[in-house]
């Protein structure tokens, strides 16, 4: 069953009518059809489908930042595991930080991306109640970020490019995480990313929240899916701090410049990956392959750079963010 967002009510109404017509067309007996002159059901369905497709295109062409945040969180949006299935062969997960334990919000591993051996890291949110609890809704503990450091060290040792797929509301803010050094783990994970000697490509596939996202996204190239978001804090969190009201989240989303389009304009990211019309959740497999094409091009462009140059370019990229250009 499709999950429609609040602003998709016109689409939901049309889809409901289409489903009713399908039931009507398939449920009539011969006697009923004889008593009631048949309506051209297929023709009416085709008309409504065209109207629905146009409504999707119109609505998604003018999404507000808050609406984009809702799309980025859509439960049907492809997650890390979907990208692994669609893009990676021979994926071998790596577990544990060798210090405390295993964190399942962050998944790391090795595999082959279109014939190329790579190291992979990303947040997994889960797609049902059981898997969401297992992965803690994609919010990592300190051991998750220390596991990332292990992966980066391995990538350096064996000369493996790194692909990062970011999808988290933020690092887990609970007492246990703070007691085990959440801030330090995030800082060292970010430092490890900046010190990597191989090509590093990060893609925001859903939410990119706060330091929990930056800790695995300090890459040579950072891309965002068209309707993903990337921010220092969630719109709800910002609204609660500034206005002490959660219903100001839409205002906060607009003020914070969280969309891919805003962030490209201020050079925080390097490019936008187009999504299928109506969002990645409407055609997950196609969205995954388009993202894969962008990642492949970026790795090809970066593969000719020496290790020290990759580090230098990455460092300069982040030092330039927020600087003012002077004439």
Structure description:
This protein has 327 residues and is an alpha/beta fold. It has 2 domains: 6-62; 70-320, 2-enoyl-CoA Hydratase, Chain A, domain 1, CATH 3.90.226. The chain has 15 helices and 8 strands. The chain has helices spanning 9-27, 30-35, 41-60, 65-72, 80-87, 129-134, 142-158, 175-179, 182-195, 210-214, 235-242, 249-256, 260-265, 284-302, 307-320, and strands at 88-94, 106-113, 116-123, 162-168, 200-209, 221-225, 229-231, 271-273. Strands 1, 2, 3, 4, 5, 6, 7 and 8 form an 8-stranded mixed sheet that branches. β5, α10 (210-214) and β6 (221-225) form a beta-alpha-beta unit. The longest helix is centred in the N-terminal third of the chain and has 20 residues, at 41-60. It is globular and about 65 Å long. The mean pLDDT is 91.
What can be said about this structure in brief?
This protein is an alpha/beta fold and 327 residues long. It is 50% helix and 16% strand.
What is the topology?
Elements: H1 9-27, H2 30-35, H3 41-60, H4 65-72, H5 80-87, E1 88-94, E2 106-113, E3 116-123, H6 129-134, H7 142-158, E4 162-168, H8 175-179, H9 182-195, E5 200-209, H10 210-214, E6 221-225, E7 229-231, H11 235-242, H12 249-256, H13 260-265, E8 271-273, H14 284-302, H15 307-320
Parallel strand pairs: 3-4, 4-5, 5-6, 5-7, 6-8
Antiparallel strand pairs: 1-2, 2-3
Helix pairs in contact: 1-3, 4-12, 5-14, 7-9, 11-12
């Amino acid at each position: 069953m499709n999950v429609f967002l609040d602003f998709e009510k016109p689409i939901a109404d049309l889809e409901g009518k289409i489903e009713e017509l399908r039931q009507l067309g398939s449920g009539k007996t011969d006697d009923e059809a004889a008593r009631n002159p048949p309506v051209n059901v297929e023709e009416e369905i085709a008309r409504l489908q065209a109207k629905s497709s146009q409504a999707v295109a119109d609505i998604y062409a003018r999404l507000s930042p808050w609406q984009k945040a809702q799309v980025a969180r859509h439960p049907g949006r492809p997650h890390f595991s979907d990208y692994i299935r669609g893009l990676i062969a021979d994926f071998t997960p790596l577990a544990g930080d060798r210090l405390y334990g295993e964190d399942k919000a962050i998944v790391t591993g090795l595999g082959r991306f279109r014939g190329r051996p790579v190291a992979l890291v990303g947040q997994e949110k889960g797609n049902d109640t059981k898997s969401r609890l297992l992965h803690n809704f994609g919010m990592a503990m300190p051991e998750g970020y220390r596991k990332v450091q292990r992966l980066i060290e391995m990538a350096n040792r064996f000369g493996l490019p790194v692909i990062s797929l970011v999808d988290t509301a933020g690092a887990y803010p609970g007492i246990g995480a703070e007691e085990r050094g959440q801030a330090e783990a995030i800082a060292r994970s970010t430092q490890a990313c900046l010190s990597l000697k191989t090509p590093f490509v990060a893609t925001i596939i859903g939410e990119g929240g706060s330091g929990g996202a930056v800790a695995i996204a300090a890459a040579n190239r950072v891309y965002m899916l068209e309707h993903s978001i990337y921010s220092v804090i969630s719109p709800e969190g910002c609204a609660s701090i500034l206005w002490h009201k959660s219903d100001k989240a839409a205002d906060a989303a607009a003020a914070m410049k969280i969309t891919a389009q805003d962030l490209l304009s201020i050079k925080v990211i390097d490019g936008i990956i187009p999504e299928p019309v109506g969002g990645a959740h409407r055609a997950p497999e196609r969205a995954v392959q388009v993202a894969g094409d962008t990642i492949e091009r970026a790795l090809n462009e970066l593969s000719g750079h020496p290790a020290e140059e990759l580090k230098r370019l990455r460092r300069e990229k982040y030092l330039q963010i927020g600087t003012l250009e002077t004439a």
